[in-house]
Amino acid sequence: MKINSIKYFSKEAFKNVFSNGWMSLASIFTVVASLMMFGIFMVMVLNINHMMTKIEADYEITLTVDEAYDAEQTEQLGKVLATIPNVSEVIFESKAERMELLRDQFGDNASLLDTYQNEKNPLRDWYKIRCIDLSKSSETVSEVKQLGGVAKVISNGETIRKLTAASGYISRMSVWIMLALTIISIFIISNTIKLTVFSRSREINIMKFVGATDWFIRWPFIIEGMLIGVIGAVVSGVIMSFAYEGLINMFASLQIGFVDFIDLKDIVLVINLVFFFMGIGLGAAGSLISVRKHLKV
Predict the structure, then answer these.
(1) Of 105, 121, 155, which closes a domain?
(2) DSSP code of residue 67
(3) Could you give the C-alpha distances from 12 to 17, 173, 196, 219, in angstroms and in order?
(4) pLDDT tens digits, residue range 135-188?
(5) How many other CB atoms sit within 10 Å of the CB of residue 5?
(6) Nearest 5°: phi and psi at 125?
(7) Parallel, antiparallel or unpaired: strands 150-154 and 126-131
(8) What is the pTM of this model?
(9) Do 202 and 290 sit in the same domain of this protein?
(10) Which domain holds residue 118?
(11) Judgement on whether residues 28 and 64 belong to the same structural domain of the protein
């Protein structure tokens, strides 16, 4: 495409956006609404995956050591645990260390535990192990239970598996919903832009009769749609950023432990890039669909 043609198409596109006032504004609001709906589901999926990754990383299988085991046997048990294929990390906590942690949790009331020191400590030594693959945690628990010296195994594997399955289901559903929203958005935007194209159908017909090629006629409309898409993307990005920051602050004030959102600074670039390219794509696709009918002369 020649530089002069690009200048002409761009000039026409900018002129049309501002000369078609309310129509252009309606198209921009349509893009904003479409991108906001898409953005809500995208942010939801990203945060669900982020939370599940954090839960999986923090997941531990805890096992208490038989009281009959001495220090050497307990240490040997730790070495055996480290050889289990799916185990990534083994953390040992003696009953004395556990008591100190418990005293820290009691805070000002730690004196209530003074009678449970040294030989009177009712706690047991235990190991915490972390898995490489959370989906194989049940097999790991089975292997741990078979080891000598293991008095009890504490595992929330079933709950974790249900959360993982639910996360995968939500992610898959959200992808289909976002795809459906994209198709619906293109349809709505094309119909909105179609009103603008219809008002200029006579101009298109004249250009067609004097020998203008289809693409020569299309390009100003495509660039106009892309420009509308970019404006809509900028507006959507600003709204989404403020709304997301407000959501993070609201949940932070509620202090819900398991809710851990991605920081705005880590996601804002992704949101704006997705909005930018989607806005361009939606605007261009809507314009192409809208102008197609009027080129059939």
Answers:
(1) 155
(2) T
(3) 9, 41, 14, 9
(4) 788 888 888 888 888 888 888 767 777 777 777 777 788 778 878 877 877 777
(5) 12
(6) -65, 145
(7) unpaired
(8) 0.66
(9) yes
(10) 60-155
(11) no
